[in-house]
Amino acid sequence: MSNKEQRFTLGLLAMEGSVLSSLIGPTDMFRIAQKLAQVRDPGTPLWPPHGVLTMALIEARELTKVYAMGDQTVHALRGVSLDIEEGAFVAIMGASGSGKSTLMNILGCLDLPTSGEYRLANEAVEGMQADQLASIRNRRIGFVFQQFNLLPRTSALENVELPMVYSGVKAALRRERAMAALQKVGLGERFQHTPSELSGGQQQRVAIARALVNNPQLILADEPTGALDSQTSEDIMRLLTDLNGQGMTVVIVTHEADIAAWARRRIVFRDGRIVEDVAAWTAGQARNDDARDGEVAA
Length: 298
Fold this sequence. Notes:
Elements: H1 3-35, E1 56-69, E2 72-85, E3 89-94, H2 100-107, E4 115-120, E5 123-124, H3 130-140, E6 141-145, H4 156-167, H5 171-184, H6 200-212, E7 218-222, H7 230-245, E8 249-253, H8 257-260, E9 265-270, E10 273-279, H9 283-297
Parallel strand pairs: 3-8, 3-9, 6-7, 7-8
Antiparallel strand pairs: 1-2, 1-4, 4-5, 9-10
Helix pairs in contact: 4-5, 4-6, 5-6, 6-7
């Protein structure tokens, strides 16, 4: 494709991006952006493509959460509003008690706000009953936790199969999809091992495979590197970055600045409010994009 043709195609994307993204999805839109990388301004993020309107996967408006603790009232969230687009990589930061974990629980449909509106993939969540929340968690969200939350006497394969058991997927298909997810995170040869036979980093990879196995639209990771050493933490963040590069929406909660630096957007909480919301082009993303640039050139 000549430079003139590339610029013409980029112009079409800018005009018709919202239509294209609804037809072909974020992963293919990302690939188109890769192919057009050489006609963009240096340093401009590849996702979302410039001028392309992506759909908000998460829409939150004036969320509040109030807890009664004895004779005291705790305002965990105070009128929080935000959108998170499909294909985003967001880090949510804040001190203990700032409201970041409360927000994560609401975004993950583990809790409901006291007031306000929350839509996930255009589904209104705030009025759902418990069984409806369980269904949306199973269909749309993959969770990754600090302590892995693996069943201790169960193999890696069976741990990854667990969400599909709740979904009613038949055994043969469960095994096939679980093996594919383990291979995706580099643990295809360790499928028979129990958590005690795996390192911390390998256990977290099993947890990520479990989060991916139902093909969710959103990965929510709560302090995903909190129990890992620095090198293993980098490996896990590189894996999450690679998944984001394939179009997966990733939201992490962390108090570590070096972990948040892998994200393309950083949201900081204090006293139940958002006090900072900035886009970032970071060293972690630069490492990943250098690899992508090599693939594009090839």
